[in-house]
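Write out this protein's structure.
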Amino acid sequence: MKILGVILLVLGLIGGIVFGIQAAGNSETFNFLGLEIAVSSANWTPVIVSSLVALIGAIILMVKPKN
C-alpha cells in the first residue's frame, strides 16, 4: 500500500504543477477605461483532480496497517 500511496502522491503533485502552470497561463487581458483587466479562461478541473489524487496518496501513506 505504501508504494501505491507514493505513486499517487507523486503523480498528483506533478499533475498539479503541470496543470496549474497551464491554467495560470490561460488568461486574457483587455483594457477598459485605461485599466488592464485580466480574465482567466482556464479549466481548473485537472488541477483539482490532481490535488485530490495527491491527497489520497498522502492519506494512504499516513494510515497504519493493522496487524
